[in-house]
Give the backbone structure.
Amino acid sequence: MVLDGGSGAHPGQDIPFASSPYALQRRVKDKLCERFYFIGVIIVKTVSLVIVNFNGEKHLKTCLSSIHDLDYPQEKLEVIVFDNGSSDNSLQVIEDVYPSAVVLKNPKNIGFAPPHRVASQVAKGEVLAFLNNDMKVESGWISRGIELLDLEKGVVCSSSKIMNWRGTDVEFNGGSLQYLGYADQLKRSEVEKGEDVLFPCGGAMFILKSVFEEAGCFDDDYFAIFEDVDLGWRLWVMGYRVVMAPDSIVYHRGHGTLRTRRQAKMRFLMHRNALMTIIKNYDNENLMKVLPVAFILAVKRALLFMNIDKKAFYFWEDQDSRIPPPPKFEEACLHLAAIDDVFESFQSIQEKRNAVQSRRKRDDKDIFVLFKDPFRNIMGSAEYLWDEVSLFGAFGLERVFQCEDQYMGRLNQGIFHAQNVLKTLRKEIPDLSGFPSNMKNMQDKKHPAKRFSKSLKEKGFAETFRKVARHLVAYIGSQL
C-alpha cells in the first residue's frame, strides 16, 4: 500500500497503478506493500523527469525504455522531453516508446541550461529529475536518488553515480573544482552514501523543484557546460547541501550531443562559463584575489598558444619584430573571446552575482573544502605553471584554499628547474665556468645570465623564481 500525504488515501485503501504492458509493475507494488507492513506509511514524492533532446533519435529509444523499467510508481512519475528543434526522427521515437511523455517543442537549439528552467515551470512534481538523453538507468535510479533529499536537513539536491555504457568504468562519482572555476569529474569506485559534494552532474541528478526555482534554476546564459557546477555552488552559498547518491546508477553513452559540434565551441563555453562562475559565487574578499589572476592567466594561455615571443616588441632587443603565424590560432582566440564575452555581459553577470550574494548563508571558507583539488594544473606548459604559482603566492591564495603543500611542491619544482639550468650553463658555456663569480666582468647588463645571477644573490631562489623564471626558461634555454 502506498499513501501520499495529499492523496486523501486511507490505510487499507489501494491506489491503483497506471496500466502498463510491463510485468515489473506488479512486483513493484508487492515490494512497496511489503515495505509498508514493516515501516508503516510510505510517502512517495511526485517526480518530474526532464530530458533535453537535440537530434537524439539513436539514443532516445534505449533511454525511454529504461525509464519504463523503473521500480517507481508510474502514477507518481511525469516524463517531460524538451526538444531543441530536432531535425531527425526524435519526436516519433518519443511517441512510439513513451507516448505519455509531455513533449515541449522548441523551434531551435537553445542549449542545455534554458530548457530545464522552462520544463520546471510546467512540471507537476515535487522533485525534478534531470537525465541526459544518452543515458540508461537502473531500476532503482529514482527511488535511491531521492531518498536522501531532506529539506529539514538542508539536503535539497543529490547526484547519481554515472558509469560508462558497459558498466566497466566510473565516469562521475563526485567532482572537484579548480580555483579558476574549472570542474573535474571524480572517478572514484566507492563513495559514502550521502557524502557532501560541491555540485551534482546535470546529466543525472535530483533537486527539489521549489529550491531549483528559488536558486534561479540553471543560468540560461551558460547554454551548456558548468551550469551544474554553478548551481551546486550557489546552493551551498544559500545554506543548502548537495550530496552523492552512489546507489542511484545510470549508464552513459558519452556526449552524444556535444560531439556534434566542433571542439573549439565546447572549449569556448568551458573557459567563458568558468569565468562567470567564479564572478558570481566567490564572496567579495576572495573575488578580489582570484579575478585578477583569472584574467591575467587567460591572456597568458592565449599568448602561449599563439607562440608569441614578446622580445620581438622590445626596443632594447635587436631581434626582428616579425611575428610568425601562431601554431594554435583558434585555441588562442577562444581564450580571448571568452574574456571579451564576459566583459560584454559584465553588467548582467554583476546583477546575477548580487542576487547570489544577497542569499548568502554560508562562508566561503566552509565551502572551499568541497573544491577538493583547488590548485589542479589546467595547462601543461611549464612557463604557464610557474607564472601561475607566482601569482597564486602573490595573492596569498595558498592560504585561502588551504593548499600550502601543493603550492610549495610546484614552487620547489620551479626552483629545482632553475638550479638545473644553472648547472647546464656552467657546463655548456666555458667562459661561465666560474659562474656567478666572474659576472662582474660582463659589460652587458641585460645579459640574461647576469640578471638571473643578480636576482639569485639578492632575493634567493624562491623570489628569483617568482620574478624571472619565465625569462630564464624562454631566453637562457634558447641560447643553449
